[in-house]
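We read letters as residues; the integers encode the fold. Take this protein.
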Amino acid sequence: MADMLTGFTHPLVDHVDGLWACVESRADTVLLTESMADALVAIQGAGLTPVVITRPGATMSYLARYHLTLAGGRWLVRESASAFVDPLTGVVSDRIDRALEAAAPSYDQSTATGDVRFLVAISTQSPADESTELGETAVTLAKRLASTQLACWGAHEPATLSWNRKAYTAASRAWMPGPVRWMIADTDGRARFTTTIRRTKGGVEETTTGILLAAKGSTADLTATAVEVLTRIATATASPLFGTVAMQSGPVDLGFRPEPIGAATPLAAIIGPRATKALAPNLDELSRDFGAKTVGRGRTPSLVVGFDSPTELPYSVATRFTEALGTDKITRLLSRSGGTA
């Protein structure tokens, strides 16, 4: 459908309201299908903001929600023929712009309900040669955080290709210098990932972002698990750049409901060799003040730190750790590396 003012058209876009390009879905669960992924790219390219409108009670997959957020988009629920509600704010209006005018509030983790899910975001760098095989981070995260194995992958949901690291690597290589994005999942519903792969001056960069169902345990237990996993990644063949593991309460199916989202609690982080060298932190002070440890290979180590504390909230510990590294230094490093360190 075309908009009379912008001239923008896409088969999945039902109407354009000002700068909002609206996709109405009647599905029980909104997935990142090929057409949805294409619509998000097209809407961004036209300088518009995507809005996915669902019926009451509909859910959204992690991958659809993640990529909608990445595109700067919003989620509305159609309560009736003339009423829209923003599930994050509760604002109801008969107009799209008014329903979306309020900023989403911040929620404390204690207000969230449901099972605990891990949220992960880890970037690694591998040599740009024939011996490189991608996908190791997702394999490790699935096994160590969610006790599951990867089963399928593809460009969209549902992923239809059987998981095979050689095929995954070959397909990624064909898109170089990229970036190219893939979806990876298990069959047990315990792990969902989206990866971005691109060629850089330092080799092949693979960013793995995902959600995994966590085992029952205290914050201290989950932090210890996260630290152990990041340590394994640091000692693997691929060189880590930067990564975080957090936890968030939510439905066991790893999806999202049209309701406020509890804040994520940071559990652990890894600072790779390149970033550690650039930031030049005082390792003795970080070990003393935060329990950070040096891991990995080579002369320049990686840093792994957990944010659990008996006297302080994890978010506060993570904030102090970032300040100790140098917030301005981290910002400059991320800007030079295109978003990863």
Notes: The CA atoms of residues 21 and 50 lie 5 Å apart.
